[in-house]
Specification:
Blueprint: E1 27-28, E2 31-35, H1 39-51, E3 58-62, H2 79-97, H3 117-132, H4 134-137, E4 140-145, H5 150-159, E5 164-169, E6 181-185, H6 194-199, E7 218-221, H7 230-239, H8 241-244, E8 251-256, H9 267-280, E9 286-291, H10 297-307, E10 313-315, H11 324-330, E11 333-337, H12 341-348, E12 354-357, H13 364-375, E13 379-381, H14 399-414, E14 417-418
Parallel strand pairs: 1-14, 2-3, 2-4, 4-5, 5-6, 6-7, 8-9, 8-11, 9-10, 11-12, 12-13
Length: 420
């Protein structure tokens, strides 16, 4: 990474001795990651922290929602309100069914605390740490990703603005000034495009976010951030050498996600995928198939039934260790279902052929994401008549490194820098 020439640091805040100006107070040596319990979101934050050289100096905090039962209908609520409603509903049920007294909501760690302290304790703890360790360890980098982390990250920024640099990944929809930097895919701004505006009734346009184009402290990416780079791929290639090196070439890796609100499918796509994979199997030396946690059983059953007895095909059963990194390092080509921005972003970071199935089923901004990948020559539709031995390439997707450079630049404007 090219070194950045830093500007002169700003005047010290009241009470900071002038002798220390530009010293420990300007160097970020540690990071806090605010996660939401979902690997896809947390992977983005950790990927950025890793690209900034702080992977060994990060602490993970999580914001989690109650799950199961009525909670599946409450995900549209802010986290704090969701937990209040869940607490009331759960205890009303206990009173009605068992006649028990109201009980405090247990913490994720197994302790027993009041409802609000679950979220507020995280904010207070991080803000206190930022204040109390500032003189000794310098400012704190806070990286958060996902809707449920927005209130936490913005509160930290509000309460410790002079001691933290807050990066919010994924568009927070409004009040972007609550963060020092926002990192989000270009397709999050799809609602502002002429074609999107035509799809939105005029009476609803003011309610569809974002409402304004990105300003100077918004970093736009093509896809999702992640932890895949050339160093990670080299390490994975070495770690998985004994398992993958003997496999006949070319190796086709198939990553299957699950339907989403913007990319709906079911058994019909599974059958289409099976037929297409059978069509290219003759040109493959070997094939490895992986399902995600979101893959419906009815979808995976179709694939397993079709290929479980084929000697060319290995289907990962979900047992550890997860071969995902080995797949990225050793694959000669990929087939990926269209629903997952994260899986596609990782595959496209390798520069290897990526075939997509189901893109025509995607709508709104996810359709826009696929259009961008096709325009850049990173993906092709999977038709089932491809020759997997015929390779093609493109400039690998490099979103994480580019976002990290923007963080460096933003820190430099503030007179801060990351540890060498």
């Amino acid at each position: 990474m090219r070194p950045i020439r830093l500007p002169e640091p700003p005047s010290p805040t009241l009470g900071v001795p002038e002798i220390f100006e530009g010293g420990v107070y300007s160097v970020i040596r540690r990071a806090v990651v605010i996660g939401n319990g979902f690997p896809g979101s947390e992977n983005q934050s950790m990927g950025l922290v890793r690209a900034l050289g702080l992977g060994d100096k990060q602490v993970l905090y999580r914001v989690t929602r109650p799950r199961g039962g009525v909670n599946e209908w409450l995900h549209w609520l802010p986290v704090s309100l969701h937990k209040k409603v869940e607490y009331i509903v759960r205890n009303l049920l206990l009173l009605t069914v068992r006649g028990r007294k109201l009980m405090p909501v247990p913490k994720e760690t197994g302790g027993s605390v009041g409802l609000l302290s679950v979220l507020e304790a995280d904010v207070k703890q991080i803000v206190t740490m930022a204040h109390e360790t500032y003189e000794k360890e310098g400012p704190l980098l806070v990286v958060a990703s996902g809707r449920d982390t927005i209130s936490i990250a913005s509160s930290i920024k509000k309460l410790a603005a002079e001691n933290v640099f807050v990066v919010q990944i994924q568009h927070p929809r409004s009040q972007l000034h609550r963060f020092d930097l926002v990192v989000t895919p270009r397709h999050d701004y799809y609602p502002l495009t002429p074609q999107a505006q035509k799809q939105i009734p005029r009476c609803l346009q003011r309610w569809i976010t974002p409402l304004e184009p990105p300003d100077r402290h918004v970093v736009l990416t093509v896809g999702a951030l992640h932890q895949i780079d050339s160093a990670a791929l080299r390490s994975a290639a070495s770690a998985w050498h004994d398992e993958f090196a003997p496999l006949p070439k070319p190796l086709l890796v198939v990553n299957i996600g699950g339907p989403t609100s913007r990319c709906r499918y079911g058994v019909d796509l599974a059958k289409q995928l099976s037929a297409c994979l059978q069509g290219v199997l003759v040109t493959c030396g070997s094939m490895r198939i992986s399902f995600s946690e979101r893959t419906p059983e009815k979808v995976s059953n179709v694939i397993v039934k079709e290929f479980k007895d084929n000697p060319k095909v290995y289907i990962w059963d979900g047992a550890e260790p997860n071969p995902h990194m080995g797949h990225l390092a050793w694959a000669d080509a990929f087939v990926v279902t269209a629903d997952s921005v994260s899986m596609l972003s990782e595959a496209c970071s390798t520069g290897k052929p990526v075939y997509v199935i189901g893109a025509e089923r995607c709508t709104w901004k996810i359709s826009d994401f696929h259009n961008t990948l096709r325009e850049r020559g990173m993906v092709r539709p999977f038709m089932g008549n491809e020759d997997i031995s015929e390779s093609w390439s493109y400039p690998p997707l490099n979103d994480t490194a580019e976002a990290a450079m923007k963080v460096h630049e933003a820190l430099a404007e503030r007179g801060w820098r990351l540890r060498p």
